[in-house]
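We were asked to recover a plausible sequence for a given structure. The inputs and outputs are reproduced exactly as logged, with field labels preserved.

PROBLEM: sequence recovery
POSITIONS: 267
GIVEN STRUCTURE:
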């Protein structure tokens, strides 16, 4: 029998559901810090681990969508970029909805174990910052402000700062259609051209709308998140030493693609 032969089914199976998903390792990754154990700490850990899994998937999809757009019109992969960005939108809606689960925890329940979290903070989520950088909101200052990250994590952030963003890929795609994209003014003019001739520039318009949807859903998550934090801890500082909800509210105006938002006023 060939060494590559795989027998499916209950008998003779070489791979099981649990082994494929690494369930023993996955289900052993939730370790409570509270003593005695606070009932809702498991929920808190689970929700945030799930967020990190979704962030990993989003990075996978956004990177591939960017690469597909970098190929331009001649690459023939723009349909793939559209498909992946649609998936990104669905995942981002799930991220917003997960906050509903977290809000079943009362402020009193959270306070049972909150002090055990310090100085850990959601601010330290490397994957979330990677996603922002990849989307177009690059800020080298964040890398300097991170505390407690490993050399490998810093290297990942530095790589994201150096590599093309979704916006860079979109601009490259504009040029592949013969549209000017040398400055913000030229890009805005090209966007107006695509908007007024959607039959000729259908994929350009569709991808611009897909990027705007990504931007809007990221804004929805930030807005929903800050309200949840205020509901849980009010104006208290964050466990990592940040100003808590004050910092989160300062991030609400962030836009990945201001030119796409500005287009609405120019149509």
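RECOVERED SEQUENCE:
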């Amino acid at each position: 029998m060939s060494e590559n032969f795989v027998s499916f089914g209950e008998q003779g199976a070489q791979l099981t559901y649990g082994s494929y998903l690494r369930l023993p390792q996955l289900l052993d990754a939730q370790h409570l810090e509270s003593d005695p154990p606070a009932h809702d700490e498991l929920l808190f850990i689970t929700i945030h681990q799930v967020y990190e899994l979704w962030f990993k998937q989003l990075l996978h999809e956004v990177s591939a969508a960017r690469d597909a757009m970098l190929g331009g019109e001649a690459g023939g992969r723009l349909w793939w970029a559209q498909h992946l960005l649609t998936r990104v939108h669905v995942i981002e809606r799930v991220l917003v909805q997960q906050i509903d689960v977290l809000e079943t925890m009362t402020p009193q329940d959270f306070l049972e174990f909150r002090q055990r979290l310090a100085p850990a903070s959601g601010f330290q989520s490397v994957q979330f910052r990677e996603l922002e950088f990849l989307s177009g909101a690059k800020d080298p200052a964040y890398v300097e402000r991170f505390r407690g990250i490993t050399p490998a994590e810093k290297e990942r952030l530095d790589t994201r700062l150096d590599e093309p963003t979704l916006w860079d890929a979109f601009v490259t795609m504009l040029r592949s259609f013969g549209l000017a994209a040398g400055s913000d003014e030229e890009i805005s003019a090209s966007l107006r051209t695509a908007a007024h001739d959607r039959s000729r520039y259908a994929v350009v318009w569709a991808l611009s709308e897909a990027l705007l949807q990504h931007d809007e859903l990221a804004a929805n998550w930030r807005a929903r998140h800050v309200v949840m934090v205020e509901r849980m801890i009010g104006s208290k500082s964050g466990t990592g030493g940040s100003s808590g909800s004050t910092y989160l509210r300062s991030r609400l105006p962030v836009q990945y693609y201001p030119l796409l938002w500005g287009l609405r006023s120019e149509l």
